Amino acid sequence: MSGVDSVMAHTAEAGYLRSGSMPPRDATTGIGRLIERLPTGGFSSVHAVTELHDGQVLDLAGGLQIVHTPGHTPGHVSLLHPDSGVLITGDAIFNMRARMTWPLAAFCTSFAQTRRTAQILADLEYSTAAFTHGPEIRGTGRAAIQDFLRRKQR
């Protein structure tokens, strides 16, 4: 991260950025335990971290609301743009090959928490779901996420 002067991150992520260390991996998976044992070089620390909080509205694009959805990392957030009805899920849910799925458990700090906090996304108001991994779902994004969560939370 050479040359980064400042970043915005949820308060639960800020300490990792300042120390240049990665959050732990989910030790409930074999791959997660293996990754934890591997030596990591970390990254250059970032001292100027603007801390974000759940519900905070950023003065970007007419207002982006921070939705804290921890699990992938302690400070993972999704972003809601109420005016346009767009939700950016981040890594809370993927939409790979037009099929929603969870992120890989081994790359989460807590896969169980990822599954629990994704439920927050079902309760928000939006029509388009945009995914960090995979194509967006326009018009029926919220219904598609609600359906996915109903099927996967059983």
The proportion of strand residues reads 15-25%
Largest sheet: spatial strand order: 3-4-5-6-9
Give the ordered list of helices and strands: EHHEEEEEEEHHEH
Total separate domains: 1
CATH first level: which class? Alpha Beta
Give the helix level as a range of percent: 25-40%
Outline type: globular
Q: Find the CATH topology.
A: Metallo-beta-lactamase, Chain A
- pLDDT < 50 runs, ≥5 residues: none
- CATH hierarchy: architecture: 4-Layer Sandwich
Q: What's the alpha carbon Rg, rounded to whole Å?
A: 16 Å
Q: Can you put this structure into words, describing what you see?
A:
With 154 residues, this protein is α/β, with parallel strands linked by helices. It has one domain (6-152): Ribonuclease Z/Hydroxyacylglutathione hydrolase-like (Metallo-beta-lactamase, Chain A, 4-Layer Sandwich). The chain contains five helices and nine strands, in the order βααβββββββααβα. It has helices spanning 11-19, 30-37, 111-117, 119-123, 141-152; strands at residues 6-10, 48-52, 57-58, 64-68, 77-81, 86-88, 94-96, 99-101, 128-130. The model has no long low-confidence stretch (mean pLDDT 89).
Task: Give a brief outline of the structure.
The chain has 154 residues and is an alpha/beta fold.
